[in-house]
Specification:
The chain is α+β, with helices and mostly antiparallel strands and about 400 residues long. It has three domains: about 120 residues, Butyryl-Coa Dehydrogenase, subunit A, domain 1 (Orthogonal Bundle), CATH 1.10.540; about 100 residues, Butyryl-CoA Dehydrogenase, subunit A, domain 2, CATH 2.40.110.10; about 150 residues, Butyryl-CoA Dehydrogenase, subunit A, domain 3, CATH 1.20.140. Helices cover about 50% and strands about 15% of the residues. It has a four-stranded antiparallel β-sheet, covered by helices on one side. A three-stranded mixed β-sheet has the order 1-4-5, with helices on one face. The chain has a two-stranded antiparallel sheet with strand order 8-9. Helix 4 runs antiparallel to helix 6 and helix 6 runs antiparallel to helix 9. It is globular, with a radius of gyration of 21 Å. The protein starts with 19 loop residues before the first helix and ends in a 6-residue tail after the last helix. Bound molecules: flavin-adenine dinucleotide.
């Protein structure tokens, strides 16, 4: 058990840009993380296990479907509240935030946005309450950054679809009751299918040996002639734009989440630097350490403002995919650099599980890769500003 002394930095009074509701949601999530996540997270990350006891509390704070309407069990909040919630949860751990991002933006969102009314009623309340956990299958062994090349496919057999293929690197898959799976039909068009645990030929082997996101469970999805009922096809959107629409929502949450991880590293390093004495002075009094800390708070402040503005645009439905890419890329890179610098400020203590920094640093190595790599987001910005596609 470690005590949580976290004090959130707010160098530019960004709180003044937030509504009362935003602050209420943010503070409730912050308090919950201090009480429920901090005391146990190092132990679960060390043993590479998802703390299942957190699922109920995550549902109660509204982290499963924060912006899904209340009629379907969601919290009915705006995009800034959603972002602040992800910030606070990732302040605790990126793996726990990943579980929420997948559940909300990659499972509940496509069912809500691309599903029909029966699908919404059948799945969303159970996902919002945490009774069911979902996962999202897009990535394949040979198609990561280029998901449009996927080979997972289904055939129309008259009264059902027959699904074959495999997905890998799927967060939550070994514990999920349902998977939103992206697969090609006989014409090669991508559609989303809801595959349920227990369907014959559907297995979810766990991926072991990760040094990152150890408190988040990862696995594969294997489909060997799985009979999927026709009513499980998401009817209202198809093509690569459908999964990419989900990724926009998750990447937006990650842009906020990364700020939480960065804040935690900065706050820990600042406190440590003020207390740790070397050569008769606190190390915070040395210019080299001040440079690190001053640059950290500058970058955190820039990221807060970027993300708040993105949230405002998203509330007005004006945020573009390219703007979301820019924020995801910038903020995760910022958090990773801060984690590395903060780790150095703590010297040897920085490598231990007594502090959160090394865990954040290892987690962020996944966050900088999933939901579009650092390079891919740069190419998206490049294409947006020049009009030239440099992917191929
Ligand atoms: C812990 C974890 C959880 C994940 N969870 C999920 C999940 O729930 N669902 C899901 O579907 N996926 C998930 N993923 C997969 C993730 O989205 C992919 O790992 C990511 O998209 C990158 O694909 P890849 O690993 O195959 O790398 P690759 O695509 O093989 O990329 C390797 C390198 O090549 C670079 N590269 C690729 N193409 C280009 C190009 N055109 N130009 C320049 N450089 C290029 C990349 O930037 C990268 O540096 C998860 C991954 C991890 C690690």
């Amino acid at each position: 058990m470690s005590s949580d002394l976290f004090q959130a930095p707010d160098y530019y009074q960004v709180d003044e840009l937030l509504s009362e509701e935003h602050i209420l949601v943010r503070n409730a999530t912050r308090d919950w993380v201090k009480k429920e996540v901090t005391p146990i997270i190092n132990e679960y990350a060390q043993k590479a296990e998802y703390p299942t006891q957190l699922t109920k509390g995550l549902a109660e704070v509204g982290a499963f479907g924060p912006y899904i309407p209340e009629t379907y069990g969601g919290a009915g909040l705006d995009q800034i509240s959603y972002g602040l919630m992800m910030q606070e949860i990732e302040r605790g751990d990126s793996g726990i935030r990943s579980t929420c991002s997948v559940q909300s933006s990659l499972v509940m969102y496509p069912i809500y946005a691309y599903g029909n009314e029966e699908q919404r009623k059948k799945y969303l309340p159970k996902l919002a309450s945490g009774e069911w956990i979902g996962c999202f299958g897009l990535t394949e062994p040979n198609y990561g950054s280029n998901p449009g090349g996927m080979v997972t496919h289904y055939k129309d057999m008259g009264d059902h679809y027959l699904l074959n293929g495999a997905k890998m690197w799927i967060s939550n898959s070994p514990m999920a009751q349902i998977a939103v799976v992206w697969a090609k039909n006989e014409e090669g068009r991508i559609h989303g299918l809801i595959v349920e645990r227990g369907m014959e030929g559907f297995t979810t082997p766990e991926t072991h040996n990760k040094w990152s996101l150890r408190a988040s469970i990862t696995g594969e999805l294997v489909f060997d002639n799985v009979k999927v009922p026709k009513e499980n096809l998401l009817p209202n959107k198809s093509g690569l734009g459908a999964p990419l629409g989900c990724l926009d929502s998750a990447r937006y949450g990650i842009a906020w989440g990364a700020i939480g991880a960065a804040m935690d590293c900065y706050d820990t390093a600042l406190r440590y630097a003020k207390e740790r004495v070397q050569f008769d002075k606190p190390i915070a009094a040395y210019q080299l350490q001040q440079k690190k800390l001053a640059e950290m708070i500058t970058e955190i402040t820039k990221a807060q403002l970027l993300t708040w503005r993105l949230g405002t645009l998203k509330n007005e439905k004006r945020a573009t995919s390219a703007q979301i890419s820019m924020a995801k890329r910038n903020n995760v890179d910022m958090a990773l650099k801060i984690a590395r610098e903060a780790r150095q400020i703590l010297g040897g203590m920085g490598i231990t599980g007594d502090y959160s920094i090394m865990r954040h640093m290892m987690n962020l190595e996944s966050v900088v890769t999933y939901e579009g790599t650092h390079d891919i987001h740069l190419l998206i910005t490049g294409m947006d500003i020049t009009g030239h596609n440099a992917f191929k």
